[in-house]
Design goal:
- The protein is an alpha/beta fold.
- The protein is 39% helix and 13% strand.
- The protein has 14 helices and twelve strands.
- It has a six-stranded parallel beta sheet with strand order 2-1-3-4-5-6, with helices on both faces. Strands 9-8-7-10-11-12 form a six-stranded parallel beta sheet, sandwiched between helices.
- The longest helix has 15 residues.
Length: 349
């Protein structure tokens, strides 16, 4: 098949030198690589350069471009990555645009099961998980911060990888930085927070958190090569996020692939080895989970070591995406939501 993914921002998709992406651009690049491995031709194009009928698949990743494609008579598949429709609610223009994009698609993809229920007005939305490059995100083979005899922490180091804020408000703690830092303070542990420039603005607002003596903040929007070093040199990954549009999200999979135990707010059906799922966004519970990992490190470590790495690899995810693309041939763009759902079920039954 000839596949076009529509460019949606000025961020690089095919960078020169070290790998550095936005999250959507990372996904697009991984799709491209793995689809080529499956024998497809894949191009990145601006929507203005897309002509209906010149390719088999047009895959769009932002809602406003879907609306424009529909106006131009271009059939498309839509990937919904936007969490703002949850934040603003169903009466918002954001939600209505997302719904219009989904309804106008041949079918659409979301990366969190809960999103399907949220967009209850349509049956054209289907789940596809995120993946991880398991060849790139790897464990060092060394356990540098643990006792090799008792598998207990010598110097536990907590890690968070996220860009905080919401809808242009840098002070909103969507990623749970306060929970992570207060847990670190309570246990007197070092904590590192890695992300982009939005985190600088967050800590300007939350000066009490920035004052923690054992906090390290890297807001340089570091490359993938730099980021993997954080995963490989820390002990526990924290992700007490209050709102995510991926189950699992990409950083949870990256930490898993580096064999880093995690503590997360997570409602996905896919099991992540080494993850302690929080029942509530609560500092005391996070501390309890940290202590549990401390006391059971040997068991958790070997479970993660023996895990099937391919189950979350991008190649596994894109093999599923390939099956979804093949549905394009049997689904008409004007099919109702109910018809699309039934054809999808019939294909995967």
């Amino acid at each position: 098949m000839k596949i076009v993914q529509v460019i949606s921002s000025s961020l690089p998709i095919k960078p020169t030198g070290e790998r550095q992406y936005g999250a959507v651009e990372l996904i697009m690049e991984e799709y491209r690589k793995k689809l080529i491995d499956l024998g497809h031709t894949v191009e990145f194009k601006w929507l203005n350069d897309v002509v209906e009928g010149e390719q088999d698949i047009v895959h769009i990743h932002v809602a406003n471009l879907c609306v424009e494609a529909k106006r131009k008579g271009i059939s498309y598949i839509y990937s919904n990555h936007d969490h703002h429709s949850f934040y603003y609610g169903k009466d918002s223009g954001v939600f209505k645009e997302q719904l219009e994009a989904i309804k106008g698609s041949v079918f659409s993809i979301t990366h969190a099961e809960s999103v399907i229920n949220y967009f209850s007005e349509t049956d054209k939305l289907f789940y596809l998980p995120h993946g991880v490059d398991t060849d790139f995100y790897t464990h060092t083979g060394i356990v540098p911060t643990y006792s090799l005899i008792h598998f207990n922490f010598i110097a536990p180091r907590l890690l968070m990888v996220a860009a905080n804020g919401m809808a242009g408000d840098y002070g909103i703690d969507r990623k749970g930085f306060r929970l992570g830092i207060e847990a670190a303070k309570k246990l007197n542990m070092p904590i590192t927070i890695v992300g982009n420039e939005a985190n600088i603005e967050f800590f300007k607002i939350h000066k009490d958190l920035a004052a923690y003596y054992n906090l390290t903040v890297d807001a340089s929007n570091c490359t993938e090569q730099q980021k993997i070093k954080y995963y490989q040199t820390h002990s526990i990954f924290l992700h007490p996020s209050s709102l995510e549009f991926g189950s699992p999200n990409i950083t949870l999979l990256e930490s898993w692939s580096c064999r880093l135990p995690s503590i997360a707010a997570y409602d996905g059906l896919i099991k992540i080895d080494g993850m302690q799922v929080l029942k509530a966004l609560d500092v005391d519970e996070i501390c309890e989970r940290i202590n549990y990992i401390h006391d059971n490190y040997a068991k958790i470590y070997f479970e993660m070591k023996e895990a099937d790495r391919m189950k979350h690899d991008w190649s596994t995810v894109v093999a599923q995406l390939d099956k979804m693309y093949r549905l394009f041939a049997i689904i008409n763009n004007e099919d109702t939501s109910e018809i699309v759902k039934n054809k999808y079920i019939a294909t995967y039954a």
